[in-house]
Amino acid sequence: LLAxxxxxxxxxxxxxxIVVGSPIANRNRxxxxxxxxxxxxTLVLRANFTGNPTFTALLAQVRETALDAYAxxxxxxxxxxxxxxPERDLSRSPxxxxxxxFQNTPSRDVTLNRLDIRPMRIAGETTKFDLKLSVNEEAxxxxxxxxxxxxxxxxxxxxxxxxxxxxxxxGIVSDPYQRIADLSILTxxxxxxxxxx
Length: 197
Hints:
197 residues, alpha+beta, two-stranded antiparallel sheet, 5 helices, globular
């Protein structure tokens, strides 16, 4: 899913170097497992599309990048920014503008003294990024949501982008050995509009 999201960003931007942020729980040590608190760090994950690789080659690259990032997950994001010293603009994240979140922690209802407690989805959450794709694994299904900067995107654009993401995933599943440029993101209607324009 991360590789597919990076392909979508590559196709939308035309850039060969795509950098995405992703949160990680940072509870990899036994001594902090029982502690209450927010131990999330941000990983910076880069994909390179130079040479128009196949999806399987890109997937191997993304896997290696993710495993390397997981091995260094204890390095605070702020320390990475301090070391890299990117040009700063306080209106945006310093190393990436797109975030990918994958949640596969099972949601559990809790009962306290006959009081049932369940998670509640809250609408209207804002994001600090241009684009944030969230994937939640729920009962053998994936629920995908997008948060976006409304100064950059409107709801119709995001709806179209999600359709392109779905088409991209279908193309990957049908033939994962295709070159990235050969994976179609267009809907049938969009292809017809292009052919007969």
